[in-house]
Amino acid sequence: MIEIGKWNDLKVIRSKDFGIYLGEEDSSTAETVLLPRKQVPEGVKAGASLRVFIYRDSQDRIIATTNTPLITVGEVKKLQVKSVTSLGAFMDCGLERDVLLPFKEQTAKVEAGKSYLVRMYVDKSGRLAVSMKIGKELQPIEGYEEGQDFVGTVYEFKKDFGAFVAIDDKYPGLIYTSELYAPVRVGDEVHGRIVKIRPDGKADLVLRKLAYAQMEEDSETLGEVVVKSSLPKTILKHGGMTTTVA
Questions:
Q1: 3-class SS at 136?
Q2: pTM for this prediction
Q3: Bridge partners for 51 per DSSP
Q4: Whole-Å CA distances, 32 to 8, 44, 64, 139
């Protein structure tokens, strides 16, 4: 079965002026999909095998491409919003046709030009779409210890809980509302520290660093100020005017 939203290994069934039709190697069905002529590798003949990605074009026809998409079905990736319409937001997925992020799949209002973490899926009509509801798709945290710094992306915010963060865009974490000393929005990249790793593989996070690390940064900044203020001053005279510089 040819699967939409995924890479498929298909063989060349027949060739036309506008492209070639591909089908499954050992399938008894007549299901085929078109690969447009502009994407057909040079020298490909009937019976040859090709690896192609399957999606729907602007006319809603199932079509093949040799171009590499930014995301495939089941994956969680960061995509940029191209436009917001009455249907929802359209995001750049690396193909000729942008993918729809329906309003019902948004965890916050999105903005054109900003990137958000989303999961690709096939909707009830057989079309590709994406969702910002990615919590269940994240993996139990590994490779980290309590006290380590992290970089992640906010994928949801709940006032009674806090900011839900995908560490490295794949591990689940939460910054409680009481720990949010700076405003964050869905889609923001945040830096902080892992406070606790729970048995279920989720992490409690804070935005601030360990006290000694923060004190070291503050002392370095203060040191720079002291050094600059203690530098000898030079008196310059030119044309009857006197200028003092550090």
A1: helix
A2: 0.80
A3: 9
A4: 12, 17, 10, 36
C-alpha to C-alpha distance for 177 and 141, rounded to whole angstroms: 21
Torsion angles phi and psi, residue 159, rounded to 5:
-55, -40
Show Cβ contacts of residue 1 under 8 Å, excluding neighbours closer than 6 positions. Answer: 24, 27, 31
- With tokens 């060739």, the residue in question is 15
Give the type of residue at 30. A
Dist CA 241 CA 209 (whole Å): 49
* Those residues with Cβ within 8 angstroms of residue 212's Cβ, 6 or more apart along the chain or in another chain: none
| C-alpha–C-alpha distance, residues 113 and 82, integer Å | 6
Euclidean distance between the first and the last CA atom of the chain, given in angstroms as a whole number: 74
User: Mean pLDDT per segment of 10 residues, for the chain of length 246 residues?
Assistant: 94 92 75 92 87 92 95 98 97 96 97 98 95 97 96 95 97 95 92 96 85 51 47 48 49
Q: Which two tokens stand for residue 103?
A: 């309003």
8 Cβ contact list (under 8 Å, min separation 6) = 2, 22, 24, 51, 52, 53, 54, 64
